[in-house]
Amino acid sequence: MDCINKTTSFSIQKAAVIGAGTMGAGIAALVADAGIPVILLDIVPPKLTEEDVIKGVDTKSRTFRDRFAQGGKERVCDPKRGTIYDPEHATLITVGNLEDDLELLRDCDWVVEVIIEDLKAKQDLLEKIRTYLKPGAFISSNTSGVSITGIAQGLPREMRKQFLGTHFFNPPRYMHLLELIPGQETCPDRMAFMKEFGERVLGKGVVVAKDTPNFIGNRIGVYKSVQTFQLMLKYGYDVETVDYLTGPVVGRPRSASFGTTDMVGLDILYHVAGNVREKLLEAGNTEEASAFELPQFIHEMYQNRQLGNKTKGGFYMKASDPSGKKVKLVWDPERKEYVPKKGVKIPIVEEALKGRNTRERLNKLLWDDSDAGRFTWESTKGFLLYSAEKAEEIAWNYQDIDKAMKWGYNWELGPFETWDVIGVERSVQRMRDEGAAIPRWIEERLGRGETSFYNIDPLDRRLSAQYPTVKEYGDSALLDLDDGVLCLEIRTKGNAINESFMEHLLDALDLVEQTPAYRALVLANAGTNFLTGADLTQFLKNAEAGNYQALEESPRRFHKVSLRLKYAQKPVIAAVAGKVLGGGLEFALHCSRVVAHAESYMGLVEVGVGIIPGGGGVKEYLYRCMEKVEPFGFPDLNPVVQKVWKTIATATVSKNAFDARHMCFLRDSDRIVMNRDQLVEEAKKEALRMSVDGFHQTAPKPVKVTGISGRAALDYMISTMRKGNMISDYDVEVVSALARVVTGGDVPKGTLVSERELLDLEAEGNAKLIVTKQALERVRAILTTGKPLRN
Prior knowledge:
By secondary structure, the protein is α/β, with parallel strands linked by helices. It is built from 33 helices and 20 strands.
C-alpha cells in the first residue's frame, strides 16, 4: 500500500452516508450518536404514489424527493426501535437526495456509500459523486463482500489512496464488529486513523481484513453455517435439534444456528454464500466452492421468501393455536411445513450443560462417542481446519479471526481460542488419525513445541488477566492500572453486592487513601454487568430464619459504604456497563465520577422486591435532580420530587447511558464511552484528570424538601393508582414509604433537611417493609422465577 505525502493529521468532523436503507440509516444513527453531524442521502423515488396524488404532492416537492432518506431517518430515530441512543441526536442527521444535494458532500470529511451489493452500481455512484468530494476526504464502501480494489478502479489515483472498505455488522448499534478493508493503494496512515476512529469514536471492535471474498467474519461464519446445514442432513437431525447442539453448550448464543439466521435474514446468508461460491468457481477452486453449496431446502425457503424475522417466518415462526395461545413453530424441511416445537433433550448434552464453563461443556460433548458427540466433533473440526487454511489469505493474523467471530457473531470463543480450549495436540492428532490434512503453519507451530495459540486462558475475561494484582480478595481483586490508579475488580456471583464485597471495598478505599503513591480508585466489572443490587439470597436466608435484626441493620451497612465513596479523600470512579441496578446504582451515584459505557441500563428497582432503595439511592437521586433546578431558583419543587418518586416507584430503567443522563442518574460531568473495551482505561484517565485538577473532598449539604404538603400530593397520586387497580395494597405501603423519604418526612415545605436525616428516613421506611411476608414472597419469586411478583 503506497502512500505519498503521508500525514496523520486527519479529522472527521462531518460525515455523509449514501443509502438510507436499514444498514445505511443505522450507520448514520451511529455517527450521530458519536456527536458527529451526518448527511443522509438516497435516490429520488421513481414515481408518485397514489397517496401522493391524492394529497397533491408533485415530483418537485422535497417531501417526495427526500422520501427515502427521510424514511430512513424516521425509522432509526423512532424510540420504539432502539436504533439510536438518544432521539435528540436526530438533529445531527440532515436528509437529502442524490439529485439535489450532492453539494452537501463538499464539507464532509468521510463519505460512506451503503447501496446494493453490486460492483457496477457502486462504481457508478462513486463516479457520480467524486467531483463533489472534499479534497482529502475519507471515502469508503460498506460492503460485505464486493472487492474494495475493484470498486476503486475507476477513481483517480489520489482518491484510490483515500478509499477503503468499512463493513459494519447489522445492526450497527449493537454489533461490535467493524471490518476495515484496504484496497491495493489505500494509504496506511489513513487505515491507522480509521481504525482508531472506529474504536475510540464509534465504539467498534475493529479488525483489518484482506480484500478477499466476504472478508473475515462472513467468510468463516457462512462456511460454518453451510457446514451445519450439510451435517444436519448427514445426521438426519431436525432444525430444533441442531440449534440445541449449536447453542450455549458449545459457547454460542441461545439463538444458535437457525435462530441466528432468522434474526440476520436467510437472504443475507444466501447471497453471501453465493458470492463466495461464485468467486471461488471463477478462481477454479471447485473443491472449496462445494463447501458453500446450500442444500436444496435452503433454496426452496429462499424462493418462498421464508427469510426469518423480517418476513414473520423462517426456520421458526410465531403463531396462535386454536385457543388463541401464542406458540412457536419450527420448519420441517422434509414435510415442508411448520410443526410445533417439541423440546429436545439428549442425555450427553444435558450432562454437558451442567459444566461450569464452555471448556467443560464443549469437551464433555466433543469427545463423546455418540451421534451428538460426533456431530459436535465434525462441526468443530471442520471450521477449525477451514479457519487455519484461510488464515493467511483473509487476515493479517489469526487473532483477528478470533476477534471477528466473537464481535460479529457473538461467539464466546473464536476458532483458535476454541482450539486451545479443546487441546491443540490432542485434537490435531485425532484429525490426523481421521486422514485430515493439517495446514502447514499449524504443523510448524506444533513442531516448535507451541501447543497453544494464546499464553492466557481464552475463557478468562477478568481484568486481572490484563493488570497486575495488588491484593486478591476472592470475589473481588485490587489491581494496579499504573500511574497511581488502582482498580477494584468486581467478581461477585450474579454481580450482586454481598457483605464480603462491601468489606473489600472499604479496605480498598482505606489503602488508596492511606498510601501517598496511590491517587485514585476505579470500580469496574469485566463481566456483562456492573452490579445488579444486593445479594437477595442472603436476604432470603435472614428472612426465613427470622433474623430481623440483620435485615434492619442492612441499610445502615449500605449507607456506611455509600458515604465512604461519596466523601473519599481521593477520586473514586465507577466504570459502569450493562445492568447498573439497585445497590449497584446507589454505589455509582455516590462515586466522585461515573464513566459509563453507552450500553448501560440504570435504575433503582428495589420496589420490585417490595422494599425501597436502602443504600442512600433515594437521597442521592433527589440531590441530583435538585441540582438541575437549584441554579434557576424554581419556586415549586413538587414536579422535581414527583419525578424522583415516580422514577423509583415504577422501577424505571434507562434505555442506555444517554437516557440515564436525561433521567439524572448521570450528571453532565459524568462521561459516556462508546467502546466497552476502553471503559477501564477511560475511567483511569478521568481519575488522573480529577487528581491533577486538584481533587477536593465533597462537603455535606442539606437539601430543600417539599415536606408534608408535597407528600399530600403524592398520597393523592397513590390513591388514584390504587383505585385504578394499577397497584396492589402492598404496593401502596412501599410507594408511601418512598413518598415519605423523597418529601423529607414530617416537616413543613421548604425545610432544609440534612443528608443524615434523609438516610434515617430510608432506613426507617425499609425497617417496616423488610419484615413483611409480602417482601419475603417477592424476594423468593425473583430468586426462583426471575420475575417480579404482584402481591
